[in-house]
Amino acid sequence: DVKVTQSSRYLVKRTGEKVFLECVQDMDHENMFWYRQDPGLGLRLIYFSYDVKMKEKGDIPEGYSVSREKKERFSLILESASTNQTSMYLCASRQDSNEQFFGPGTRLTVL
Amino acid sequence: QKEVEQNSGPLSVPEGAIASLNCTYSDRGSQSFFWYRQYSGKSPELIMFIYSNGDKEDGRFTAQLNKASQYVSLLIRDSQPSDSATYLCAVRPGRRALTFGSGTRLQVQP
Predict the structure, then answer these.
(1) Distance in Å, alpha carbon of B81 to nearest chain A alpha carbon
(2) Given CB atoms, is A5 within the 8 Å cutoff of chain B?
(3) Distance CA A62, CA A13 (A)
(4) Smallest CA–CA separation between B97 and chain A, in Å?
(5) How far is CA B64 from CA A41, A94, B108, in A?
(6) Each residue's pLDDT tens digit in chain B (110 positions)?
């Protein structure tokens, strides 16, 4: 079974803090993704990576950065958290097959 | 115009009925189409994918694709209360990542 894990289910941070969201997959997938999900807006792609140290911007990259130093791990970084980054963050991974597997999500609240 | 459009619902159907969920997309170059189910508080899980025009059946689920009309649908036969969830349509345009619609909430009434 493919497993995608995320470091926290719930996270509360203050405005201006640097925030790290970690995602790990155990199936040697090449492609990894970060989405955020907000009511009425669906899932929006922030960044994705198709190989170690490779990354591409998604639809809403502003205010975020990513890191992929190892194949199994893809980190999302909020350099200076803001209240409009309060959201559910979902990590996903995929190999050449078309099924994209999601992690359980991290609900981030920025106060 | 959004890349993937879905009616937000809720779509309410009685138990045992057929639920019909619809999705339109804007990128004519899209090649792969997906339906995900998401229960409240959970992450999305894949139900079906379809690449070719026509119908694809898997148990109680049928995906339908019409590339000329840029239209994808999901039919759920013999709907059960456990099917109550939000259904997300996703397409893969030229790039590697999926683009999702905002989802349709389905309520199956016992």
Answers:
(1) 23
(2) no
(3) 19
(4) 7
(5) 24, 24, 21
(6) 678 999 988 999 999 999 999 999 998 888 899 999 999 989 999 999 999 999 999 999 999 999 999 999 999 999 999 999 999 999 987 667 889 999 999 999 99
